[in-house]
Amino acid sequence: MALSWRSWLANEGSKHLFLFFWLSLNVWLFGKTFLLYNQGLQYYYLHQMLGLGLCISRASASVLNLNCCLILLPMCRVLLAFLRGSQKVASKKTRRLLDKSKTFHVTCGVTICIFSVVHVAAHLVNALNFSENYNEEFVTLNAANYRGEDPRKLLFATVPGLTGVIMVLVLFLMLTASTYAIRVSNYDIFWYTHNLFFVFYMLLMLHVSGGVLKYQTNLEEHPPGCFNPNKTLRQNLTVPKAFEELFSDYTTEPVPEDLPVPEPFVQNSFMRVCSKEPKFQSHFPETWFWISGPLCLYCVERLYRYIRSNKPVTITSVISHPSNVLEVRMMKEDFEARPGQYVILHCPRVSALESHPFTLTMCPTDTKATFGVHLKVVGDWTERFRDLLLLHSNQDTEILPIFQQRRYPK
Predict the structure, then answer these.
(1) Distance (Å, rounded) from C-alpha 179 to C-alpha 186?
(2) Which pLDDT does position 249 carry in this prediction?
(3) DSSP per residue over 30-77, as a string?
(4) Which residues are bridge partners to 327 per DSSP?
(5) Do residues 143 and 36 both lie within one domain?
(6) Based on the number of CB atoms within 10 Å of its own CB, is 241 exposed (0-12), middle (13-18) or buried (19 or more)?
(7) Could you tell me the residue range of the domain that residue 110 belongs to?
(8) Labelling 376: which of 71, 259, 272, 324 has CA 20 to 30 A away?
(9) From the UniProt record, which GO molecular function terms apply (predicted)?
(10) Residue 110, pLDDT above cutoff 70
(11) Across all residues in the chain, what is the average pLDDT?
(12) How many domains does the chain have?
């Protein structure tokens, strides 16, 4: 029992420790942002207008920023292969953890889908509250133009709303095309829809530049909830007698005694007085800080892979094995490899953008420059690749391997 526990800890412990750290980071970021918008003085008036929808929408947006940043890192395959080398990362546990990059990519993707639903639902509530709680005292704070405005205008007639709707559609296409059934039956659908993430990120940058949610900038001149003798901010607020004598022209009618007075209005049993109106300003988009680095890193890697792939690979021979298995032997100038390494095959005559990784089953040596892979014909890409390599594609009935000699595609 102790041995099996130690074996599990040695093999899977680092993975679960990293997962726990990632989960804790998401929970901490969600809670921190929620409390900031729920208790922060700079968001007092905005919170009075939107309520809980403000806190949930911003907290879920923080989680989305984190995972939209992390989901790009497992896609940097050249960087991971560089780190995976035994000379770069000495620890076997770390190398084993890097092998789980695809699982982490899927985990981040599922998290993005879940919190996108939460984020959209919270903003639907915000759009309704903007319309119903329109405040004439704070015109710049309102996203609606007047009380009772159709909330659908905020969703389809504004930059944040329209980009959000399109992003939801793009995310839905990427999610449905990522299912196992579609990937196996038609990998092209998965691949091309997955490349819509470029569109998703461009829309994301436009989405956060709308500046719909604003915060108060002059907290010292105007403490949230203070009493302004020149213009009473709260019509249903009972003014103490001391202020009635000082500002007799600005007194208001009394309200029922059971009406609670908000906490920010009272400090040490005295009313705080301010002489200036609150000023509001839109946030600088924080999403740029989260995704600009990983996105630039991924774009640089894609460019590097494109430049490096310009060197053609010469296919020397193809062996067709039983059970729809092909062995492809190739040559490439100045190619070095280690046992267990994988290579990414790209054939423009099969697909202009699509490429697939395959583990090397034969590595080049000092005396032989040939290397090879075994691939299973299970999808549309491998079927078209087989048809290009073999003169006849119906090799299921063959018992012995068939050696084909012909002009192969690059």
Answers:
(1) 11
(2) 45
(3) HHHHHHHHHH-GGGHHHHHHHTHHHHHHHHHHHHHHHHHHHTTGGG-H
(4) 319, 374
(5) yes
(6) exposed
(7) 14-158+210-219+278-303
(8) 71
(9) superoxide-generating NAD(P)H oxidase activity
(10) yes
(11) 79
(12) 2
